[in-house]
Amino acid sequence: GVLKVFHAPRGDLRWLWSNFGLLVVGLFDTAAAARELDRGQANEPSLKSLCREHLGVEVDKTYQRADWRLRPLPRDMLSYASGDSRVLLPLATRLAARLPQG
Length: 102
What we know:
Shape: globular
Distance between the termini: 19 Å
Strand content: 5-15%
Radius of gyration: 14 Å
Oligomer: single chain
Strand order of the largest sheet: 1-2
């Protein structure tokens, strides 16, 4: 199967299920992995903070709370989404390497 990498996907998964009946399997959640690695952390780790800490990268979160139902998506929103997508796999790889095996 194909691994799908998300960050804190609860809302995304709910939307995919309610709108398309789509159930995502084979999922790696970078937020859940980060929580597992830092059990003392009370808050949901942000993608921005994880990218800074584990990749040394600053990500733009300007459109985090934008209305993603908008179609066609403006160029700025497409650029934002592709930027998030580019960091998820390297971040997941780093976090997975630190998780206990088994």
